[in-house]
Known about the structure:
Layout: E1 16-20, E2 25-30, E3 35-40, E4 47-53, E5 56-60, H1 63-70, E6 80-82, E7 88-95, H2 109-116, H3 126-137, E8 150-152, E9 175-181, E10 185-191, E11 207-212
Antiparallel strand pairs: 1-11, 2-10, 3-9, 3-11, 4-5, 4-8, 4-10, 6-7, 7-9
Bound molecules: zinc ion.
Amino acid sequence: xxxxxxxxxxxxxxxxxxxxxxxxxxxxxxxxxxxxxxxxxxxxxxxxxxxxxxxxxxxxxxxxxxxxxxxxxxxxxxxxxxxxxxxxxxxxxxxxxxxxxxxxxxxxxxxxxxxxxxxxxxxxxxxxxxxxxxxxxxxxxxxxxxxxxxxxxxxxxxxxxxxxxxxxxxxxxxxxxxxxxxxxxxxxxxxxxxxxxxxxxxxxxxxxxxxxxxxx
Length: 216
Ligand SMILES: [Zn+2]
């Protein structure tokens, strides 16, 4: 694990290229074979991401199934993103960060309250961003569709006694992760708006999203 693999793809040839501002939600359906890259433009941003089988949204990314399939809690090159029905939704094909979290979950008004104080309850959070993006999709998806997520570029090691520690980031400006869709996949991102967690230096930043059609 922790394989630093660079991509051969040139951003100039991408069919889609967007800079997503800090704190914003985003969604798109990737068709099978398309390549999707997320670039951590300024470093140590957390990109909370959900994946669904576009043909059946009840079949969605599963952190426990993904961890069990690869025998490792961190995601990097060669990780297969496994769904709740045991399908592979996407494969990570390049990674210049080396480690991504899928244990820490997404921030919410509840976690803001528990971790940072009751006065933080109404601050922007990923769970609300996901719900907003789902509502805008008009597919009838809502709270019940919020399953386990990936925190791209986030570093959440497990302590010797089994706890999760939200450690300082291991990413840096310009690092990226790239994946190939293995089915038609709905991707939902909350570019984390969190202002209370030192893991992003209390400073949410933009990310760049690129899509290429299948190569060759
Ligand atoms: Zn968040």
